[in-house]
Amino acid sequence: MPESEKSQPDPHSKTKRKNEMLDLQKLGKTLIDLPASELAKIPLPENLLDAIHLAHTLKSHEAIRRHLQYIGKIMRDLDAESIQVALKKIKFHKEQRAVQFHKTEEWRDQLISGDDELVEKFLEQHPQGDRQKLRLLIRKAKHDRANNKNTGGETGLFKYLRELIG
Predict the structure, then answer these.
(1) How many structural domains is the chain composed of?
(2) C-alpha neighbours within 13 Å on the C-beta side of residue 57
(3) In this model, does residue 6 exceed pLDDT 60?
(4) pTM attached to this predicted model
């Protein structure tokens, strides 16, 4: 190799390489923080999974910091973009479930405090629902609220609404 090519600097500056490593460590931290059920949805090599599971056992701040560096080193050879895409899908599904949950809560509260017109409106939007079962669950939930009891009326109504909306 000619002397002039040896003396040219690396196309990636040291700062850029360091920032890339820090990004991989942050991605590793995100993976560590995921519940096992969500981690299983991401295709990861065995050595990275082992490192993630080991990170859960570490208590010392310094040990965790060093281990994150190790995870970042493992991830250098992986396609980090595919991992990020999988994480975005998981986040999107979480957000969708949260929206669905709040929508179901709203319907439950409106049906309990509302009248028969709301039941009809709900059944127009969700025709697969059983009118008789819905009214029975609403009546039980109203009774619970009126008597300041918890016999499972609101929970039963919520579960039925979630089935229909979900």
Answers:
(1) 2
(2) 5
(3) no
(4) 0.66
Final residue before a domain boundary, out of 78, 103, 120? 78
Among 2-6, 116-120, 160-164, the minimum mean pLDDT is found in 2-6
7-16, 20-29, 111-120, 145-154, range with greatest mean pLDDT: 20-29
- Residues 101, 74 share a domain: no
Amino acid at residue number 39? L
> What DSSP string describes 14-83?
HHHHHHHHHHHHHHHHHHHHS-HHHHTTS---HHHHHHHHHHTT---HHHHHHHHHHHHHHHTTS-HHHH
52 is in which domain, residue-wise?
3-78
